[in-house]
Automatic annotation (TrEMBL):
Organism, scientific name: Paenibacillus montanisoli
Alphabetical list of Pfam families matching this protein: YajQ
Keywords, ordered alphabetically: Nucleotide-binding
Any one GO molecular-function label of the UniProt entry: nucleotide binding
Protein name: Nucleotide-binding protein DL346_12360
């Protein structure tokens, strides 16, 4: 019987993220409570830089950005918030790092979860992704369902399902 497999990855679609940022900036420009504000959102490689007048407005800008990301299907679990820092002309800035790929300690945790579930599949870490193989498609579906229910710090996608 043939072996079936799928890959577990954690990636952020940069095009969709860019679209979400554009929508958020457009909303900030048209909202009355941001009139005359120096709020902005910029994408720099794997970082999002959010600038605003004060901490309260910065949190509002981040809320708007997260709502646009959710609407576009971009995972917000993969965001790692930096500390608030003062910026030029009385504004505050916060960097948000985007996690791409599965870190080694999280992949070991996923491997342990799969092994402890007693489902008849094999899992192996391949760089920043994990390949799960098994004879039964039902077993692979059970692993996907189990991992979706698990409380992990990152958002997982399941690719190359065959």
């Amino acid at each position: 019987m043939a072996e079936n497999s799928f890959d577990i990855v954690s990636k952020v679609d940069m095009q969709e993220l860019n679209n979400a940022i554009t929508q958020a900036v457009r909303e900030i420009e048209t909202r009355f409570d941001f009139k005359g504000s120096k709020s902005s959102i910029n994408l720099e490689k794997d970082d999002i830089v959010v600038v605003s007048d004060d901490e309260y407005k910065l949190k509002s800008v981040i809320d708007i950005l997260q709502s646009k990301m959710i609407k576009r299907g971009v995972p917000i679990k993969n965001m790692e918030f930096g500390k608030l820092e003062p910026a030029s002309s009385g504004t505050v800035r916060q960097k948000i790092k985007l996690k791409q790929g599965i870190e080694q300690d999280i992949s070991k945790k996923i491997n342990t979860l799969i092994r402890d579930s007693k489902i008849k599949v094999k899992s192996q870490i391949q760089g920043d992704s994990i390949r799960v193989t098994g004879k039964s498609l039902d077993d692979l579906q059970a692993v996907i369902a189990m991992l979706r229910g698990a409380d992990l710090q990152i958002d997982l996608q399941f690719t190359n399902y065959r």
